[in-house]
Amino acid sequence: MLADRISKLRFLVDTGADVSVLPKYYAPKADSSNELLLLAAYGTKISTFGRKRPTLDLNLRRTFTWPFIIANVNQPIIGVDFLKHFNLLVDVKSGCLIDGITKLTTQGKYTNTDLLTSGISILLGDSEFYGILSQFTELTNPSQPTRNNKLTKVHHFIETTGQPVFSRPRCLSPELLKIARQEFEFLMSQGIVRPSSSPWVSPLHMVKKSNGEWRPCGDYRRLNAITIPDRYPVPHIQDCTQNFFNKTIFFHPRFDESLSPDSC
């Protein structure tokens, strides 16, 4: 067990758990999610209720922001996905967690685990597709976004008129500034965004979500005002649904593209 210095919660470090989870009381009003069903030891099914991205301080001189799955469990659990991403090593003999980057350690405590909520996994070993899906864990683990290290040949170009537009940063309260900084630090750690020195600058706008959390958004009204519209016709939804008639297997394609260096 490790204690988080921010939330004061005690996390069970479970090297047999594929994913990291938080108890249901983190989302008491949330309905059971149909997108993901976890499996505990002996195949016991565990319902999920969405995700939450807390920031943990495990006394390792750095913080850890990670998307935890909210599930029907009794205690918070740090799984292999968390340990692997942050390069953390479990020293079973000493009962501590070792930071593979800084070489610092934090002491934990042994505890009796609940067999019904330990060893959480996404796939069962006797399932029909276990063999092939276990080779591509990034496809089945929602907390590990698929990364593409190959350079894409597809670039998104926004055609504009006139000189680059920019806006001054808007003042944020200390609370919102902290939330925005944590969000962008997480996106950078995942390789989703990167620092930019572009002359195009749009202000940050924080929008409150229905669950009380905040979503950073960009105010692109000045950019849209000088953007040349793309007149490509959008397909009608009726045409799309007709193509789905009598189909039973659907594939969701992923398009990897980057913004053209010559674009805004």
TrEMBL record:
One of its GO terms (biological process) is DNA biosynthetic process. Keywords: Endonuclease, Hydrolase, Nuclease, Nucleotidyltransferase, Transferase. Residues 9-82 form the Peptidase A2 domain. GO terms for molecular function: aspartic-type endopeptidase activity; endonuclease activity; nucleotidyltransferase activity. It holds the Pfam family RVP. PANTHER family: PROTEIN CBG26694, PROTEIN NYNRIN-LIKE. This is Peptidase A2 domain-containing protein.
